[in-house]
Structure formats: structure tokens, C-alpha cells
From TrEMBL:
Annotated family: Belongs to the ABC transporter superfamily.
InterPro entries: AAA+_ATPase, ABC_Ni/Peptide_Import, ABC_transporter-like_ATP-bd, ABC_transporter-like_CS, Oligopep_ABC_C, P-loop_NTPase
CDD domains: ABC_NikE_OppD_transporters
Domain ABC transporter span(s) in chain numbering: 2-254, 277-527
Protein name per its UniProtKB record: ABC transporter ATP-binding protein
GO CC annotation: plasma membrane
Pfam families per UniProt: ABC_tran, oligo_HPY
NCBIfam families linked to this entry: PRK11308.1
Phosphoprotein listed as a keyword: no
Amino acid sequence: MLRVEGLTIRFRKAPRPVVDGVGFSIGAGQSVALVGESGSGKTLTCRSILGILPRGAEVAGGSILFGQGAEAVDLLRLSKAGLRDIRGSRISMIFQEPMSALSPLHTIGDQTMEVLRLHGNCNRAGARERCLAMFERVGFPDPVRAFRSYPFQLSGGLRQRAMIAMAMVARPQLLIADEPTTALDVTLQAQVLALIKELQGETGMAVLLVTHDLGVVANMADAVVVMRAGRVMESGCCADVLGRPLHGYTRKLMAAAPSIPETTCAHGSGAVRDPILEFHGVAKTYERGNVRIRALDGVDLCVGRGETLAIVGESGSGKTTLARLAMLAERPDPGGRLLFRASAGEPPLDLLSAAGPELTAYRRRAQMVFQDPYASLSPRMSVGEIIAEPLAIHGVCGRGEGRERVRALMAQVGLDPAWTNRYPHAFSGGQRQRIGIARALALDPQLLICDEPTSALDVSVQAQVLELLESIKRRLGLSLMFISHDLAVVARLADRVAVMRAGRVMEEAPPAILFSAPLHPYTRALIAASPEPDVSRPIDIATVALGAGRPDLWPEPFRPTADGAPPPLVEAAPGHFVRRAA
């Protein structure tokens, strides 16, 4: 279906090509994964297939043959009109960043229907029907509402589902998937991967998959192409490349890939003896017109001093809402309480009634590392200005001392202090996340709230950021509230894990207990859905479908009561809580 031969791409005035002699082929119904760190040339290779290279980049050599037999055409020599006929209908692409790939001025439904209206000879009613059917297949909880929504009205995970639906609705012959599940939780990721495989079986669609998740590669790919610095380091059958890697770079990627260990080390006992932050009966309701959305429903949680509490769950479970409440970026519904203890043994501060100096002091002691290192840094400020901004806002020190503290913070997170005058666009994703961590550490906080801080990073950079967070926590005695949908990352970092779904805590325990003996069907689904870089251990879709499905289909003790109320959160064993009938 696709044959890439000797592909070379360079930027004007660059001393060497950014993609240098890359070659691979994909057969009908086959999946090939492009693997490598950020900057290895994976995305440029994919964009060259569709003729959408960024400004300044140009193909300097090679060929890209699409189609079979006598119908094969060289996409690099096709006219613009010929490429437009193929793009979206015969070849489609799932882009990595849905917020920048989707039009903010058009509804999700109109953008998805456009593909069918341009290429599918569909009237509006027929296109709408096919779009709603695809929205349901990619896991939208309310396809009609999603159809009417604009991108800014959806979460990152829902926007990614829209991108996937848009790429697949026309049933292309070749699907290019550039990090298609990065923003998705593991249960939806498992369902989307199963959907792509299902469509492959139905239509013989070929898939070119770009990913840094070797677990996804093991579950999806027939063949793997490992790239580094624009060149192919190793390629071959998936079982051979992942099971018996020959190149040192491939072995390095395999070593950096996180996975849930068979026996997880117990970091804590499950009991919180010295809480620094407490949530008591916290609820949060949003109103959109006549619709009331219950984002949090009676959450009780504690973050212990010096410990890491990990909060896991799928998109829409309330994880980020909980983080925003902890930062007082939003206020909970009346009746809930948020308590903070700056020092052990002292009376707690009621954050919801705090004001003036008390509130300012808390905002210094609690800082946040955001999910997206691209959107969370101002492009108009230098790195030094970004890191120094909290110092200036709180009047911590003068300009001269501030410059020294900025340089020390950059060194602390592994960045060259000489880079203070550079701007964010000059840094990679992993380096930008380090800048975000340095900014969060500027005020010497006691509590660090990390909202998916490694989800957008490739495996080797992710490992570096996790090592950085671990060393900072040990050195500074920080408390961490760590939000993630990656259970392998959680197993490495957490002292306790809280599993959330639909605004409620479903299960809570130390990782050694939770991952070895999960009780709730939803927790079991999360664990079963976590892909591992081992072709002999595929995702268990049946377990995922049961736990991630409707609560009324769960086993009897875990189902809601007749009036729809959830069962209580009970202590099944010391430090192990689960939501089930007593």
C-alpha cells in the first residue's frame, strides 16, 4: 500500500538533512510503527506523505509510492489537485495535538462532516448519521452533544476522540496515526486500538503508527522502524525488534519503557498519619445552560506530608477538577472542606475561608506543574523571565538575587543556566517540562501538584523527568499530588493510589496492594488496559470492557443501588478502601 524509499528532508540552510535516506513499506491491512525520541524525524516523515511539511522544509530526494500494482503513484510528484483528492479520503491522518489541529470556529460535527461532504458524495443528513455512528464507536459518552460542541468545550481526551473519528469516518486505505492515544486514558486507549484493528479487518486499511509508547507498539504493530536523528537505526518484525533488539539505541528505548512490575514495591502502609492537604466531602457542579454536570461527588482524600498520592482514572473522572480545587483556581460546592497544615501538629487552615496573608502564604506553599509544556509557557517571555515571575509576584527577592536563584533552579532541573535568555520555542518538550518544574520550585513550595506532567513526552525523556521529580522530592521533602492515566508511572512514584471514576473515588490503596490484588472491576479494567512492551501479553479487552462499561453491569456488590446511589467507600483491609456494598 505504501513504499517509502530513500526519503531525505532538509530545512533550508541546515548543515545536514533532518530525515536522511529513510525507507520502509506497509502492506494492505498491516500496521508499521515509527518509534524514536522527539526530533528523530518521525512526524516529518509522516507529513511528507501528505505533502504538508512545515515552512522551510523540503524533500531533497527519494520517493513515496502509494497504491498497489499499476495504480501506484509517487506522492512526491503528484500535482496539488491530485494530492487534495487523496488527502482525507484515501489517506487520512490523526494529528498529535488536537487543539491546534481542529478549527476553533466550527463545531466538531461540521468539521467531521466536511470530510464526507468533500470526498464521500454524502448529503448533510447522511453525513450526520455516519458521523454520529463513528462518534459512538470512538467512545463519546454523548455523541449528539459532541456533534454540536466547539473544540474549546471538550476536554483534551474528547478532542482527541474527535480527531480519531474525523480521520476514520471516510474509511481510508492508509491511516497515519501520529501519537493517536497520547491524550487518552488507558481504558479508552485500549478501545480505540481495538477499533482501529477492527476497521483494519473490515476494510484492509494500512496503518502507519507514530508513538513513543512501546506498549502500544507491542499491541498494534506488525513491524517496527526505529529512528534516531533522521536515520533508521533498526527495523523488522515487531516480536524481533522488541523481544531481541540488536541496536544499542533500541535497547535503550526498551530499558526506559515503564511497565507495571509483577510485584510492586510498597512505599507506604496506606494510613495517612500526618496529612498536609485534606479533602472532606468535596463536590463540584458545572452548569451549561439547563444541563448540570457533577464533576466531583463527595470526595474524601488526604495527601500525607512527604508522600506521593497518585490519582488515576479516565478523562472526565474529576482528576484535573480536584487539582484545580486544590490550587483554589475554582471553588467547590457549598458543604465541602479543604484543609491545609503547613507544619505537623498545628491547627489546619480552612482554605475556603482563608483570605489576605493566609491565602497568599498558601499560594506560595502549593505550586502546580501543568500537563502541556507547550501551552503553559508564555512564548513572549524568556525562560529566565518565566522562572523569575513567581519571585516577582510574591516580592521574594530583588532582581540581582532573583537572577542567581533562576540560574540555580535551572541547574537543579538539569538545564544549562546560560540558557536564561532563550525563549520556549528553542526547547524540546522534555526541556520545556523541566522549565515548568523549575518555575513551580521557585517559591520553595511544600506541596507540588503535577497534572499529567509526562503524558506528552517520549519514553526516554519521561524517564528523565520522573527521575528528576523523585530526586527533588527526596532532597526537598516535598509532598506530591500526582495525576496520571499511566499506571506504570504511578507504580514507580506513588506511596498511595486513588482510583477515580465519574467524580468519585472507587478504590484507594498503596500500589503494592492495588496492582497485585485490585478489588473494584474498574481498577481491574485500568490495569488490564495498560499496554506492556511485550507481544506475548496483549491487552485483555474483555476485562477492560466490563470494568469501563456501565456500572449496572458490574458484579453485584459494586453496582449502584435501586435509586441510583453509589455504594459506600468501605475499608476492605487495613489501608485498602473500595466502593462496594458492606
